[in-house]
Amino acid sequence: MDAQIAGNLSFILTKPPANDNFADATEMRGSRWTAYGHNLGATKEPGETMLEWFFNPPNTNYRSVWWKWTAPVSGTITVDTLGSQMYNVLAVFTGDRVDALNPVTPVPTDPGNPFNGDASVRARSGTMRVTFDAVEGTTYYIAVQGAGFIVPSSGPITVTLSGPPAIPFAPDSFTAMRINSNSVELLWEDIAVDEEFYQIERSSDGISWELLTETTPDATRFIDLTAPAGTALPHYRIRAVNSVGASQWVTAESIQPTAQQQWLIQHFGTARASGNASWNADPDGDGIANLIEYALNGHPLVADSAVLPIATSVEEDGILYPAYWIEKNPAAADLQYRVQFSHDLRFWQDAEAAMEIVSDTDEVLLIRAIEPLTDFPQIYFRLLVAPH
Questions:
Q1: Distance of alpha carbon 175 from the chain centroid
Q2: Residues 101, 144: one domain?
Q3: How far apart are CA 90 and CA 117, in angstroms?
Q4: Which terminus in the chain has less CB density within 10 A, N or C?
Q5: Do 137 and 64 share a domain, yes or no?
Q6: Are residues 31 and 147 in the same domain?
Q7: Residue 167, in any domain of the structure
Q8: Angle at CA 117, nearest 5°, toward 112 and 123?
Q9: For residue range 91-117, what is the model confidence (pLDDT) as tens digits?
């Protein structure tokens, strides 16, 4: 008797997380930090054996991920995985090779007491909490892996680190840009997690400084409305401050706005593409995103569909051809305009490969089909816009 088996076999392939390997550990900063990640698709790398007893016999379902943190000050540190949506094991190490690490916190080694650490946390949520004494300037590696014999042992992970207050990190990417005759926009990246405010000073010569403002915590932008008029910008510097002390000063880089930034400044009063000024936003609700408004020289705060390209026809030697008419923003030379066409709205192809460019100037792009209009029962066009 012959037997036949029929059925469906499916595979779900998950790309490993960026911090799957020890060498790619995600950095944590400051004396307080919460990191989010997952161990879906994570693997055990060669030489990684510290938590191997969880698999008896050991197997490849290891699913460990890594973070690293350099202590800004010495003191007692607490790390927990409370909030993670999977049963996990947590341990902290020092060392520079995954196969030669030194445990800083107790590594689970006794199957009779598998979840050492804070037992109350483990009993409540399947997560862990550990503490250790950190030494200033030392880099610590935090490993989180799924508890392989308990489900779920893979999923979202939350790692929270807390320790004694430390001087905050200085801001990054501090720039100054004139947005009108007497206003300068200051932008920076907030990489501190425990600042109480940012302090900004201004100088006419870069030697004598005066306090300009003290911002709220987590600020990333300030507009100096009292900047002297003229082409030259004043000097600016910024530092992060908390009760422990202040970071080093960071001096602003004076920059000229790009065409895109000039357009944002004109319509939103800022060079930063965020909030209503982000390129995907549609603040006037006309269905046209800001990037398309910029490309077509539209107004992002005035609903107007008239700026959209037009599907039309052009006549040559008495024959009509399908065509697509686009009025471009002459200032948007930093954009690439790409036209595609379709006969069924499912399959699209680039117009350049099958159509003729009738006109391509700073202000107009006109593309027509090679075949007459009578050869097309229906044809659709669309415009894709991207930076050069």
A1: 20
A2: yes
A3: 9
A4: N
A5: yes
A6: yes
A7: no
A8: 75
A9: 899 999 998 899 898 755 443 344 444
How are beta strands 235-241 and 197-203 bridged, if at all? Answer: antiparallel
| Joined tokens for residue 229 | 């008029």
CB 222 within 8 A of CB 186: yes
Total-model pTM: 0.75
DSSP classification of residue 119: H
Name the domain boundary from 138, 162, 186: 162
Q: Which two tokens stand for residue 152?
A: 């779920």
Same domain, 140 and 231: no
Examine the domain organization and report whether 27 and 139 are in the same domain: yes
Q: Which two tokens stand for residue 158?
A: 């939350």
128-156: per-residue pLDDT in tens? 888 999 999 999 999 998 876 556 678 89
Q: How far is CA 312 from CA 298, 322, 343, in A?
A: 20, 6, 15
User: 348, exposed or middle or buried, with CB in 10 Å at 0-12, 13-18, 19+?
Assistant: middle
Q: How many residues does the chain have?
A: 388
Are residues 50 and 87 located together in one domain of the fold? yes
Q: Which residues contact 283 (CB under 8 A, 6 or more apart)?
A: 276, 290, 300, 301
Domain count for the chain: 4
Count the neighbouring beta carbons within 10 Å of the beta carbon of residue 36. 12
**Mean of all residue pLDDT scores within the chain:** 87
Q: What is the spatial distance between Cα 214 and Cα 246, in angstroms, rounded to a whole number?
A: 13
Give the span between the Cα atoms of 158 and 80, in whole angstroms: 8
* 104 and 191, same domain (yes or no): no
Give the integer Cα–Cα distance in Å for 85 and 286. 40
**Whole domain around residue 100: which residue ranges?**
22-162
Q: Are residues 74 and 206 both part of a single domain?
A: no
CA angle 168, 172, 174 (to 5 degrees): 120
Q: Which ranges in the chain belong to alpha helices (H)?
A: 119-125, 259-268, 290-295
